[in-house]
Amino acid sequence: MKAGRIEHIKNSPLGMIPADWDIMSIGNSLNEIYRYPTYFNIKYVESGVPEIRGELIKEDGTIEENDKAYRYISKETANRFPRVHLEPNDFVMSVRGTMGKIAIVPERLRGAVITANLIRMKFVKSFIEPKWIRHYLISEFFQEALDLATSATTIKTIQVPQLCAINFIRPPINEQRRIAEILDAIDEAIQKTEALISKLKAIKQGLLHDLLTRGLDEAGKLRDPKDHPEQFKDSPLGKIPKEW
To answer: How many degrees, rounded to 5, is the angle at CA 28 between CA 59 and CA 80?
Structure first.
């Protein structure tokens, strides 16, 4: 490390960090954190208020978009649990079983509710950028801290006080936003690349079938059994090139 840059960093309980960053607990960064005390005898309906459960939370910190994957409860049932009516930029986290699955709530799920195995968190927006904290919460840094704070039981679970006691490194809000922009851009590039790979795999699969059943003519083009039936013959597996 260059001596001229030492003044820009400082020591902290979590190691060396930039001088203008600080250490904060999850509890001190929240306006609200809540989990159902009870959630039973729920009657489901065909349409109504969507219910978010752990299976709908994706690894990238988002929530399933397919409406058919949801269960729904009536507004009357939802009103029995007013403190878990979700708002955009709230966070939901699984706290039992498959613990630590975390997602940010989008606008389309405003008013949705959560099951008893999830917890609702609302961060203080004046010093926590939701897009940034999403990346932190799904990172291995937080997941390792969460694992250490977990009750040592057969079924993994964490209580609210344990969760609130976890410390994390907090950059200034403007830097959080810049970091989130960079990470979001990378995520977008990954999604586009994965979509392209899926498309190429589908193209390859179709081409593979044609190449393995029709082959190439002398010009390097796929043989066409309709335009050139004379190039094919019958076989126990169907039409194949004559020389095969």
So the answer is: 70
**H-state helical runs in the chain:** 75-78, 130-137, 140-149, 160-164, 173-213
Task: Please identify, among 170, 197, 232, the residue that sits at the C-terminal boundary of a domain.
Answer: 170
**pLDDT tens per residue across span 199-223:** 999 999 888 888 888 888 888 888 8
Instruction: Compute the average pLDDT of residues 59-85.
Output: 92
pLDDT given at position 24: 96
- Nearest CA to 92 out of 141, 37, 51, 40 is that of 51
* Structural domain includes residue 191: no
Task: Give pLDDT tens digits for 86-120.
Answer: 999 999 999 887 888 999 999 999 999 998 889 99
Mean pLDDT of 45-68: 94
Verify that 134 and 225 share a domain, yes or no: no
Q: Which residue has the tokens 């190039």?
A: 231
Range of the domain at 240: 215-244
The domain that holds 89 is classified in CATH as: 3.90.220.20
Q: Give the residue among 84, 91, 93 at the shortest CA–CA distance from 156.
A: 93
